[in-house]
């Protein structure tokens, strides 16, 4: 018997998802993440700002929304093994949900290019982790070829059930806030922005909303394949989760942004890290650098006049800061050293 978590997003949105009574629900209680009003950060940006904290999902990223659907349907189909290529968050999520389902999991990552906090998650739950001498795009090509030759289920966002789960974040925003003027989010493989647009369209069709937000797809300057409208052979950025040079959902994402009358924007790493720090210091929210791209991109769009002053904006923070502890320790405040005396502590506390 497969485990069931009644508080997950499949239970919440069952009537809007492609599941039946025959679908075993593989859940870790994902979804229903906080939507936090960020007044101090918003004041710096000149907008009414909200942060969608997807790092509050069970494995610390938005990937759990899609993975509960992908593994539930894999279990329904009798899958014997699942596989994914990953820059980190997908591997952590796939490994956890596969463990929950009792299905062996193989994750393929670019060697030396994945933040340790993500890699550790996949290792901890027993997945087979394979680090290749190549990029994420190489890893994805290889796992696709593997699945074409063998009865192994691919759970990257090429799997259509991934987008079905991820669209539910749009439902939550509509239910809690209504429709913002803009939705700003990081773009790597471009599946999430595609899923949000699907979700907002379905909310309109269901009568839950009368309009849809404009979409701002935010990329790192060193991996801005969508903005440049061309693949990037060797993407490079501190934002490891979106260090992807050939987005597999390129066409769907481009169409979504065009229909939304939005756009793509790219920020250099120094700006991403600047806003990464500000999000933490001004709002107490610890996200990974890739998540901060949604705010860095918004700042660029504000400077360009694309986003007007006072507009209501939701920035999606896709992953928790503990995903990338190396960046956190490098960018955070230094540890103050002192002797174990009250006098030493007073000098620090009262300075």
Short structural summary:
This protein folds into two domains: about 10-60 and about 160-330, Rossmann fold, CATH 3.40.50.1100; about 65-160, Rossmann fold (3-Layer(aba) Sandwich). The chain contains 15 helices and ten strands. It has helices at about 10, 40-45, 65-75, 90-100, 115-125, 135-150, 160-165, 170-175, 190-205, 225-230, 250-260, 270-285, 290-305, 325-330, 340-350, and strands at about 35, 50-55, 80-85, 105-110, 130, 155, 180-185, 215-220, 265, 310-315.
- Stretches where pLDDT is under 50 for at least 5 consecutive residues are none
What name does CATH use for the topology of the largest domain? Rossmann fold
Note the beta-strand portion.
5-15%
Based on DSSP secondary structure assignment, what is the total number of beta strands? Answer: 10
Q: What is the ordering of alpha helices and beta strands? A: HEHEHEHEHEHEHHEHEHHEHHEHH
Please state the structural category: alpha/beta
Individual helix count:
15
Tell me roughly what share of residues is in helical segments: 40-55%
Q: What distance separates the N and C termini? A: 60 Å
Structural commentary:
With 351 residues, this protein is of the alpha/beta class. The protein has 2 domains: 224 residues, Rossmann fold (3-Layer(aba) Sandwich), CATH 3.40.50; 97 residues, Rossmann fold (3-Layer(aba) Sandwich), CATH 3.40.50. 44% of the residues lie in helices and 14% in strands. The chain has 15 helices and 10 strands. The strands form 2 sheets. It has a 6-stranded mixed β-sheet with strand order 1-2-10-7-8-9, with helices on both faces. The chain has a 4-stranded parallel β-sheet with strand order 5-4-3-6. α5 links the parallel β4 and β5. α3 packs parallel to α4 and α12 crosses α13. The termini are far apart.
């Amino acid at each position: 018997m497969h485990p069931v978590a009644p508080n997950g997003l499949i239970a919440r949105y069952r009537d809007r998802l492609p599941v039946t009574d025959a679908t075993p629900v593989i859940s870790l209680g994902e979804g229903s993440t906080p939507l936090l009003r960020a007044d101090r950060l918003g004041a710096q940006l000149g907008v009414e700002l909200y942060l969608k904290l997807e790092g509050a999902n069970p494995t610390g990223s938005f990937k759990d929304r899609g993975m509960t659907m992908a593994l539930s349907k894999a279990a329904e189909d009798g899958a014997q093994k699942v596989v994914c290529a990953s820059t980190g968050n997908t591997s952590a999520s796939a490994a956890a949900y596969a463990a929950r389902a009792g299905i062996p999991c193989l994750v393929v990552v670019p060697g030396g290019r994945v933040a340790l906090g993500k890699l550790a998650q996949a290792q901890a739950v027993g997945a087979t982790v394979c680090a290749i001498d190549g990029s994420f795009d190489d890893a994805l090509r290889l796992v696709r070829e593997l699945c074409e030759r063998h009865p192994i289920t691919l759970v990257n966002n090429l799997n259509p059930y991934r987008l079905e789960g991820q669209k539910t974040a749009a439902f939550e925003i509509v239910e809690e806030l209504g429709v913002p003027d803009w939705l700003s989010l990081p773009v790597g493989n471009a599946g999430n922005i595609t899923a949000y647009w699907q979700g907002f369209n379905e909310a309109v069709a269901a009568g839950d909303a009368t309009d849809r937000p404009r979409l701002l797809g935010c990329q790192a300057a060193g991996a801005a394949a969508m903005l440049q409208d061309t693949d990037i052979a060797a993407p490079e950025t501190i934002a490891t989760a979106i260090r992807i040079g050939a987005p597999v959902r390129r066409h769907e994402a481009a169409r979504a942004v065009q229909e939304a009358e939005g756009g793509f924007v790219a920020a250099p790493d120094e700006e991403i890290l600047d806003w990464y720090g500000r999000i933490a210091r001004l709002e107490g929210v610890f996200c990974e650098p890739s998540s901060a791209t949604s705010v860095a991109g918004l700042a660029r769009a504000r400077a360009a006049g694309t986003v007007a002053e006072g507009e209501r904006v939701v920035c999606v923070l896709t992953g928790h800061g503990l995903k990338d502890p190396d960046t956190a320790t490098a960018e955070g405040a230094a540890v103050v050293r002192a002797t174990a005396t009250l006098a030493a502590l007073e000098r620090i506390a009262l300075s």
